[in-house]
Amino acid sequence: MSSTHAPLVENATRDLAAFGASLRFSDLPPAVVERIKLSILDSLGCCLFGATLPWTRKVADLARAESAAPRASLIGFGTKTSLSLAALVNGTSGHAFELDDIHKESIIHAGSIATPVALAFAEDEGGASGRDVITAMVAGYEIGHRVGAAATMSLFFRGFHPQGTSGAFVAAATAARALRLDAERFQHALGIVGSQGGGLMAAQEGAMVKRFHSGRAAQSGVYSALLARDDFTGIPDVLEAHYGGYLMTHSDAPAPERLASGLGTTWETLQVGYKPHASVTSIHTALDGLAAIMRENGLTAGDIREVEAGLSPMTHVHCAWEYKAQGVTAAQMNLYYGLAVIALDGVAFTEQYREDRLREPRILDLIGRCRAHVDAEIAQMGPAFRHAARVKVTTRDGRAIEKLLLDRRGSPENPMSTAEIEEKFRHVVSRCIDKARADRIVELVRSLEKLDSTRELIELLGAPVDE
């Protein structure tokens, strides 16, 4: 079959599986261990807070109605279910409020997928060691992020949600490593999950189902690894197959060399960043820019005549659409809503995205003063700068103040500190668990690689949260 695509890399699926199957904790550089612990803590905060939200609770009700064997905890619910249903619910809660970690190139929030999967298998073992949890998650991060990077932004522009599509490989690799599958079965786990990934980007304009994509990816990874363990076969060349393979099907411009390049020496885990705002990552730099202009010039919302944001083509398509108060999901994905709450409140966190604020007259008024366009200079910088933003504020007294930011706060290039990630966790969970429980979770994750058993951590996570 002829193709205009770049030649695909032979045996990429096999090579990724061999890497995942052979990965050991001793292979991990200390920086990778520290980064994955931050992702675990960040993800646990997302899951605990997410357990209080109505869309997660609907999925949890569905899971509990199945009356499955109680093998893994529903985080924050005080009950257990099967491995796959726990992954479904906890993966949904992890992605439930746009707070989860992000790998920019692949556009995947791996923490909300890998953390629930790794902990479900750890609990099923009676409390696997922290080292095993870390190793399984790194396998998921390294393999899944490479798949997403190889699919390129073309996957997104075609309308697929990377979290549900490429994210399924995060889950399968995490699960396969947690089960200690050999290389052949690991390869089949990837070959199975490649047929299951799904999710459409139209979900961003108001639908609860966007959060569900993450849960389904996590669940699909569990199913894929369990089936592969029992010698159920998948597509052995699922990534590189010319007809019907993952890259050829999902992307018009794949970068197959990203699949295995630097495998085991260049760590994609270190390219993960964190979110200081409870919104889609693509708008964070614009929010940072507006906040900086207002802070540095002593402006209030009343001083603003207009805000103009220059964006990358991807961010413009993704987020600069007309705000219609379609729901919390839409507000979190919308540039103009985010700029408005920054102007009014100085922050865009959980309280700014409450249902009762979505039609607030002050916010709608600010939205009416916000504009956006594709910035030619940013566009020429290429995909690595797709989060860059040029923000211009015109004040009522005639001043024009402009700021160009290339890297958002929380990105690997402009990182949040460990203390800031821990503070974010405490802030996120403060409304749903007590301080002593939060502090103990932080303490356990800090020393995760030293824990011979994760049982105490899992018990703390499984206990009910306050609604």
Q: Can you walk through the features of this model?
A:
- The structure is a single chain.
- By secondary structure, the protein is of the alpha+beta class.
- It contains 19 helices and eight strands.
- The protein has helices at residues 12-22, 30-50, 54-65, 83-94, 111-124, 130-157, 167-178, 183-193, 209-229, 246-250, 284-297, 313-319, 328-333, 335-345, 361-367, 376-381, 418-429, 435-446, 455-462, and strands at residues 72-74, 79-81, 102-103, 272-273, 304-311, 370-374, 389-395, 400-405.
- The strands form three sheets. A four-stranded mixed β-sheet has the order 6-5-7-8.
- It is globular and about 70 Å long.
- The termini are far apart.
Keywords:
single chain, alpha+beta, 60s Ribosomal Protein L30, Chain: A, 2 domains, four-stranded mixed beta sheet, 19 helices, 8 strands, 49% helix
Q: In which order are the strands of the major sheet placed?
A: 6-5-7-8
Profile the largest sheet.
4 strands, mixed
* Range of helix content: 40-55%
Q: Count structural domains.
A: 2
Topology:
Elements: H1 12-22, H2 30-50, H3 54-65, E1 72-74, E2 79-81, H4 83-94, E3 102-103, H5 111-124, H6 130-157, H7 167-178, H8 183-193, H9 209-229, H10 246-250, E4 272-273, H11 284-297, E5 304-311, H12 313-319, H13 328-333, H14 335-345, H15 361-367, E6 370-374, H16 376-381, E7 389-395, E8 400-405, H17 418-429, H18 435-446, H19 455-462
Parallel strand pairs: 5-6
Antiparallel strand pairs: 1-2, 3-4, 5-7, 7-8
Helix pairs in contact: 1-6, 1-8, 2-4, 2-17, 2-18, 3-4, 4-5, 4-9, 5-6, 5-7, 5-9, 6-7, 7-8, 7-9, 8-9, 11-14, 14-15, 17-18, 18-19
